[in-house]
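Data card: per-record layout.
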Amino acid sequence: MKKIVSICMIFILLLTICCINNSTFTSFASSNDEVDITSKSACLVEFSSGNLLYEKNATQHLPIASMVKMMTILLTLEEFDKGNLTEESLISISENASGMGGSQVFIDPYVEYTASDMLKSVIMASANDASVALAEHISGSEKAFVVKMNEKAKELGMNDTNYVNCTGLPAPEQYSCAKDSAVILKEVVKHDLYHKFSTIWMDELIHPSGRKTELVNTNKLVRYYEGCDGGKTGSTNEAGCCLCASAKRNDMRLISVIIGASNSQTRFNECSKLFNYGFANYENKSIISQSSPLQSIAVNKGKKDNVEVYAKEDFSVVSRKGNMKDYELSYNLPSKVNAPTKTGEVIGKVSIINEGNVIKEIDLIVKENIEKMSLKDCIDKIVVNW
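The structure for this 386-residue chain is written out next.
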């Protein structure tokens, strides 16, 4: 009997250890009693590292109302990046787009608006009609655009999201979660064009007919919370009141998500509460910046003797204030690189080491083209040295 009890106790201990080691969230995620959040779901993410600093039901499938439009905004911004859209590009408005209910800017059918005005209307005023107009212009129909939305979600690793429309209007099979909402806003805020409109408090849309529609930013935090420069609201009876927002102070940017708040003011209060918690308790440190050279190595038979080496991506860490650890860099590089070199060419790796463990490896690249020396270059060099 004693042997059976002992075996059971060992089994329980092993099971407990396994559960701890397979925890879904990073150790940075605080317990729910550190911040009092009443909304159904929430999370707080540090932008540079991607670390989750707080979570409450962060992967629970929930309707998110107009926060769906963050994906509409991202795909539109990517069309600008590709050169398929400019701010002056004209968007033809269909009767279908013009007739969208809910939040809207009352665009007229059978006329043209600029892509800039349509994007601004979505970012500031959460306009359903402008969202559909952009979707139809980019993909031919909202249905085809939704296919792109889901493809992009899969590409970003948003495994708890499914889109049915581009507006966030209620649909039975449409859902997302707090964690995925943070992922998409993290992508959106990387675009300068987004910030051109996200920080505007009040503006107006001038229709081709001369009629004017007042635009007021639905995200009140851009006016009332220090450092907030973007975000997206959402509100339906089904979803409750939702908000995904971003704020930056000093060198740290945070993304705060609230889903299913009981009322509009609660979503703003609890989003601010998460920001306050993050800025008060955490700090981040840039370990590697892709804009700063890390090493300089010799070029064999090149028109230049040396070339600077850069990391292919940034890397930073976040920790509780006062608990920042030391990190070491270890380089795996050749003593020389042969000419010619091309911009973006990978020539080695750098390892980031903490307490003897490699926590990240990043490719090292060159950022300039260096041509191979010609016979004339060799002779000239000999003459100069002589």
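Known properties of this structure: Residues 6 and 344 are 60 Å apart (CA to CA). The mean pLDDT is 90.

See the next section for split statistics.
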